[in-house]
Amino acid sequence: xxxxxxxxDTTIIITLDGELDASSSVMLDEALSDPEIMTYSKILVxxxxxxxxxxAGLGVFISHLQRFEDAQIKxxxxxxxxxxxxxxxxxxxxxxxxxxxxxxxxxxxxxx
Amino acid sequence: MNxxxxxxxxxxxxxQIRDFVTExxxxxxxxxxxxxxxxxxxxxxxxxxxIHANQEDxxxxxxxxxxxxxxxxxFEITDNGVAFRRSEYKEPNxxxxxxxxxxxxxxxxxxxxxxxxxxxxxDDRQNTCLLYKKIK
Lengths: 112, 136
What we know:
Helices cover 38% and strands 33% of the residues of chain A. Chain A is of the alpha/beta class. Chain A has a five-stranded mixed beta sheet, sandwiched between helices. By secondary structure, chain B is an alpha+beta fold. Chain B has a single domain, classed as 2-Layer Sandwich (Heat Shock Protein 90). A five-stranded antiparallel beta sheet of chain B has the order 1-2-3-5-4, with helices on one face. In chain B, β4 (117-122) and β5 form a beta hairpin. Classes of the chains: A alpha/beta, B alpha+beta. Chain A binds chain B through residues 19, 21-23, 29, 52, 54-56, 58-60, 62-67, 82-84, 86-87, 90-93, 96, and chain B through 11-12, 14-15, 18, 32-33, 35-37, 39-40, 43-44, 47, 50-51, 94-95, 97-107, 109-110, 113-114.
């Protein structure tokens, strides 16, 4: 699992590359727990190269979502592969989280 | 075809289990989504066994055998750790998990929704989890 960050003004783009399972999700949890992340107004998660997610990976997003919402920070997923999106859908998470098709759409939503 | 694998109880070995399942299923021409779902269900059970039943103790191990008969896949996963108590299992309320910031507890829900049948058996010797999925 490789996690890289890119900053654009008040937006942080987190790119996930690899597989998010019970072992690698610890890294993601650390990244999202960094106090600095609360200084951005938008968190965009680029899932193009996220090839797999298990409940441990979903659990990391589930556990941080309310904190971001309370701080009015938008969390937006984009470029998600169908098989990964399907895992969100099995639990109904696609209705509780914002998942859009591409970067342009993510930026449009983020600017609303 | 090799249909059995044994790994020691560390989270790093989950990748090996997923690769093993993927390789076994490669000949069945499953869709990407179905293949991923099956691999995920097995991964969730193995993660639970490694982390909760065996406390990530690398001196312990879990084993899995895969068979297919008349289009029904069967995964038989065994270990010697603490048995899963199905009677104590409660379906998660995801919105509540979000509200309280809960990290875990949605893995078995995924398994139950993906697989056609999920069984847990325990005797003095070992615990067995049986997963069934119709693919044809």
